[in-house]
Write a structure and sequence with these properties.
Structural class of chain B: mainly beta
Number of helices of chain B: 0
Helix content of chain A: under 10%
Distance between the termini of chain A: 35 Å
Mean pLDDT of chain A: 94
Oligomer: heterodimer
Structural class of chain A: mainly beta
Largest interface: A-B, 23 and 21 residues
Largest sheet of chain B: 6 strands, mixed
Distance between the termini of chain B: 36 Å
Shape of chain A: globular
Low-confidence stretches of chain A: none
Number of strands of chain A: 11
Number of helices of chain A: 0
Strand content of chain A: over 45%
Chain lengths: 112, 111
Amino acid sequence: DGGITQSPKYLFRKEGQNVTLSCEQNLNHDAMYWYRQDPGQGLRLIYYSQIVNDFQKGDIAEGYSVSREKKESFPLTVTSAQKNPTAFYLCASSNRGQNEQFFGPGTRLTVL
Amino acid sequence: QKEVEQNSGPLSVPEGAIASLNCTYSDRGSQSFFWYRQYSGKSPELIMSIYSNGDKEDGRFTAQLNKASQYVSLLIRDSQPSDSATYLCAVNRAAGNKLTFGGGTRVLVKP
C-alpha cells in the first residue's frame, strides 16, 4: 500500500528533552512537509523539503530541526528550545510541481 | 487580516440539507485551492481541488472558485451524519510550493 506513515502515534516528553518524530512515505513524492496543529486551529508550516538534502524553514521553525537524507524520510526533531511543543504534528508529501498535499496519520506530542 | 479565513462554526445542518462553507484568501497570486476534511483526532483528508473559476463537482461535493472576489466555497449536498467534521480550506502561496491553511469550519449534521 502506498502512503505516509508517522511514528509514534502518541509521544510523551519531559521538559528539557529533545524528541524525534518519524515520517516515511512510499509514494515517490519529492516534496515533504511538517505542520503543527493546536486545538481548534488550522495547520502551521514548520519545515519543508522540495528535494533530498535540501530543506527550508516554514513559518514557525524556531525550536525545531529536520533532515532529508533520503527521499522517503523526513524526520522532525522537537528540541528543548521549543517553548510550547504540545501539539498534533502532521507530515505531508506532494509530487514535484504539484500543490496537492497528502497527510500521514499524525503524532500527538504531549510535554509533561 | 488572516491570509486564509474561514468561519469557525459550528455550522449545524439537518440531515439531507445542503451545507455551505466559505473561505476567503488574501494572496491574489494564488492559483490552487483545496478543501480537506478532518475528523476529530485524525489527520486531514483531501476531498476537493479547484484551479479555475467556476464550479467543480465530485459526488455530493461542489467546490466554487471566484478569483476576482478571492473566495472559494464548498457545498455538501444531501448532508449525512458522517459528514460531521472540520473542513479546512488551503490555498497555495504564489511564492513557493507551499499551502496556507484556514482555521477550519466545524460542521455538525444532525439526524
